[in-house]
Amino acid sequence: MLSFGRYILSAGLASLADFAVVQSLLLIDIFHNQALFGATVVLGALVGMNVNFWVSRNFVFKPDERRTRDQMRSFFLVSLTTLVLRLIVAYSLVWLLSLPLFA
Questions:
Q1: How far, in Å, CA of 28 to CA of 14, rounded?
Q2: Alpha-carbon distance 49 to 38, whole Å?
Q3: What is the mean pLDDT of residues 31-37?
């Protein structure tokens, strides 16, 4: 049960880092155009993935004999699949919330 709590904590810290980066960048007007909005989501996700990797590696999972670089590669390849889904959801929400119904 302790590992699950640590896992939730690592995911929460990663989400907080991701949210902070995205919200900070969205305060800058240049990131409000459609192309850079995607870049903002990607940057936030990369920061969140990085935080999640290091916290999980040090506090959640048992030590792994593989080199850190190999562990990181595996972790990021799995995490990148969620990044594609996040971009789809983000652009869908922007489109949905720009409809006259929500204006």
A1: 22
A2: 16
A3: 84
Tokens of residue 35, six digits: 């192309």
Helix (H) or strand (E) holding 66: none
Q: Widest CA span of the chain, in angstroms?
A: 55
What tokens appear for 89 in the block? 């959801």
Rg of the chain, C-alpha, whole Å: 16
Q: Is residue 58 a contact partner of residue 9, using CB atoms and an 8 Å limit?
A: no
Query: Cα–Cα distance between 56 and 35 in angstroms, integer?
Result: 32
- At 52-90, the pLDDT tens digits run 999 988 888 777 788 889 988 988 888 888 888 888 998
